[in-house]
Queue: 3 jobs
Job 1
Amino acid sequence: MILHGYWRSGAAYRTRIALELKGLSYEQQGHDLRTGAQKDPAYVALNPQGMVPALEVDGAVLTQSPAILEWLEEAHPAPALLPSNAVDRAHVRAMAALVGCDIHPLNNLRVGKALRESFGADQAAVDAWAARWILPGFEALEALVARHGAGWCFGDAPTLADCYLIPQIYSAARFNVALDAFPRLLAIDAAAKTHPAFVAAHPDNQPDAD
């Protein structure tokens, strides 16, 4: 497998976490989003959207991290990142979507670039914009973890929800968003800092990291 990504991309980060949790071997191909490398014609030929991540596997190219993570769960079911019960699976997917649909798309690199170039936002304004979406989302997620978690977002082992949460906490730090109001989320982040799969997937530990 070849994972096309960028060391600081939240979507690529969550994909690396899932790959590491599954214990799968993969190569990496970095595309520096800051320089527009993801729009190179050779990469666009693989992924017409020109975004990361993309996963080359068995002659196919899989795009969009939610689809990649669901494929990983189907193709490599052990260890499971979704519960066995259908209702519980829906809860985990909802927690993942809370981050993946309602927080992350509003504070990724291209949104920050648009805020700066089209609206003249400085870094303080970009940080405030990110906080506007991270804080209410994390407030809801904190409540869901209180309801369902037992050391991780759902239960006592990592799930897809944690694959989404940890990169968003990393992003919150980059935008100077204080997370003191979310002790359960911070406890999960602390657990991830000592978990080999999450350590291996961390942006600082990637071959294309600055």
Job 2
Amino acid sequence: MRLLEFNLGVNENPDLNPKLWKNNELMLDVKSALIKIAQDFKKFVDIPFEVLDLTITGGQVSYYYTDQSDLDLHLVVDMNNTPCDREAAELFDTKRMLYKKKYTVTVKGIPVELYVEDKDFPAVSASYSILKDRWIKHPERSPAELDLEEVNRMSEQWHKIIQAVLTSNDLETAKKTMGMLRKYRKLGLKHSGEYGVANLVYKTLRNSNLVEKLQDFIDQEHDRSLSLK
């Protein structure tokens, strides 16, 4: 795959997405829709927990959104008040994935991704408080860590790896590769933030449907390994 064929996970825009923002403030109808979605997700989780705040982050809360950028909606909680915080975190994450699989929720055509966030580990990128109607961290223009040349280089490397895995038809190798890719992104977010190379590489692979192809392969091969003809 040539560099120009990649659908890069970042695109600089002069303003925030006008579908969501007006004068750098969240539109009222968008705010109402997001609150409604959060309430529905809280009901779906089906265990009592206190929501301290609702925040949004991700590509749509920056000047670098693309047509594939989703809107990350975070329900902020205090994990210190949870007796089994690790188990609760795993439950929240499982419920999040089940909700995503069951429902396709959008705001003005933009996919909404739901998360339960521990208040002690807030988003490192730009974020906006829905309940308080204010910026927690303002979006930046031309972040210093933006390195598209390295994003292209690493995207090509990961593309070759994923293509080789798909050709191999090896389920365990595919699982390990997906785990490595997610760990690569997680560590990159921790050390370099949203506009670091690792996160932009992941978004580029996702926008180019390579992550989806790898996950589909894992799911199909997993089904096949458990089925009896």
Job 3
Amino acid sequence: MLQQFQVQPEVELTNKILVTVLICTYNPCKHQFTQTLESLSNQSLPLSEWEVILVDNNSDSPLALEYPLKWHPNVKWVHEPKQGKPNAIVRGILCSKASLIITVDDDNLLDPDYLATAIKIQAENPNLGVFGSGRIEAAYEGALPQWFNAEMAAFIAIRQANQAMTSKTIKSHPLCTPWGIGLCITRHVALTYLTCCSEIQSQYSYLIGRKSSFLDDSLFSICAVNNGLSFGVFPELRAKHLIEPSRTTLPYILSLSYDNAFGEKHFSLIAGTSPDNPRRTGSAKAAAILLLKLRPKLAIEEFRHYIFHLKRSKQSRMLQASIFKGWNDAINAINSNNITASKQQY
């Protein structure tokens, strides 16, 4: 469960520090985390203008001793004993000093101009509350299975936007919704997120700690919209996602797809939107029953879904079934907790 916290930040905002780079990690892969930190050391923005907050989310051994980051004058390691990325993000926000916070995962590589470009985008778009990378390239560390395609890659946060996309309405989700890789959060939205998390704790406690939880990324976009601000992605913000072989296995992709669908339904509930239900896998038995009940149009539609589903590859069929199950399980969870679909204001 998300821990209780004080919304008031633990430090004062300073004009000298323009950007806070926030890294939340738990038992990181050493060679990937080392590359992540090296990519930060190559940033073009002067070191005096940004800080690094690293949140050790209760790793097996203290990470501050292994990764001291002596090359940066503004580094702070923070220990967060309550595991779960939302807890770590909250702790990092409370410790941050800058008006712009950029989250970086422990397997991300930011382009050298990422921080400087983010500052420029923020200055040119004063009504932008949260934004992120429009180009996230995969750096696969092993051979890809033959069945692995773009549909699968989407679940490991690979994105190639050809132009900037922004919106003030959450209905444009997910095309404009920025992800956690290089997520840029303005101070006002970050503080709103703290209040929002407190509400989420009481209403959706069973979501805390889920993989790909909308609490990690997408909730920031809701907070921006509810403050009259926009959100979006920009192709000039470029990053790489280091993908180890275990993340291109079918069980891992199916797990992500289920959790994403589960979170997506809750996202629509919080945002007050009605996104399309994931396409049904169809059933020949259901089609026959509908036909016997003299409902030919519904029977034909059900059978059409069934035939389309059969034409897909085995892996794609499993993926679609996982998505549909995650969506339905979310509906059951919402109903069992008596949560009503009403837009929240934060």
